[in-house]
C-alpha cells in the first residue's frame, strides 16, 4: 500500500470498530451534541492521529460554508514591514484555527486583481489587503459583492470599507518636530510620487509641523519614482542639500534604504552634519555612521485588530470598522 494513500473516515471507522458517522461527529467536534462516549471519542482521535488523517477541507467547506483560510495581499512580501506583518498575522490566525494564504501585488493593480481573484477561487473566508494605487474599482467590487474585507496600511476614504492603519499624519508630525527639536533648521521630506492616503498623510503631517513653527517657507518635499527610487534619490537628494536642507525625513522604510545608498557617497562633512529620520527600524541603520530616529509602527496591534475586524465581519456581516493606531518615536541621538 502506498504511504501516500489518503486516509478516509471509513478507514478510521473500520480501525476503531465504529460507524463512519460516529467518526465524523468526533472529528468535527460534535461528540457532546451526539452523545459520543469519552472513551470512544478518545479512541477515535488516537487512531486518526496514528493514521495521520488529514481532513478534506474542500468537503468540510461545502458542509460549513467555510474553509478557515484568510487571504493576505501585500504590496511586496520582501518588504521587511510586510514580511513582519505576515509573520504576526500567521501566528495570530493560527491561534484561531485559521490558515493564511499570501500574495504580493508588486504595487500593480492588475496583478493585485489576479492575486485577489486567485485567493477567492481558493475559497478564502475573507481578505486583508494592502491596496495599491489605482485599485479603487477592485476594492469597490469586493465590497459590492459582500466579500469580508479589511484594508491594511492604506485605505480609500471614498469607499465604505473597514481599515486598520497607522495614524500617519500624527506620526509624521512627531518625527518632523523631533528633527526640529534637536536642532535641525530645514528638514526635507522624501516621499513616493503616488496618490495613496498613507503617503499623502505623511506629507501633510510634515508640512503641518513645519508651518506650526513658522517654517512654511522651508517646506521641501522630494518625490521619488516608486519603480526607480535609487535613481530618483541620486538625482534629487544632492539638489535638496544644495538648496539648504540639513535633514531628511524618509516616508517609508524602503525609501530610507534607497536614500542611504545615495547619502553614503556624499562628502564626509555633509554626512556628519545631516539629520536622518524615517519609518520603521531596519538592522541596516546600525551600520550607518549617522543616527536614524524612526517611528515604530505597532505591528502586533495592527495585525491583531485587522484579524479581529475581519473575523467579526466573516461571522456577523460586513459591519464597517476603522482603526488608526499611534506609532512610537524611537530617538537615536549621536
TrEMBL record:
One of its GO terms (molecular function) is DNA binding. It comes from the Bacteria. Keywords: DNA-binding, Transcription, Transcription regulation. SMART domains: HTH_LACI. CDD domains: HTH_LacI. The keyword Transcription applies. Residues 7-64 form the HTH lacI-type domain. Pfam families: LacI (PF00356), Peripla_BP_1 (PF00532). Gene3D superfamilies: 3.40.50.2300, lambda repressor-like DNA-binding domains. The keyword DNA-binding applies. SUPFAM superfamilies: lambda repressor-like DNA-binding domains (SSF47413), Periplasmic binding protein-like I (SSF53822). This is LacI family DNA-binding transcriptional regulator. The lineage of its organism: Bacteria, Pseudomonadati, Bacteroidota, Bacteroidia, Bacteroidales.
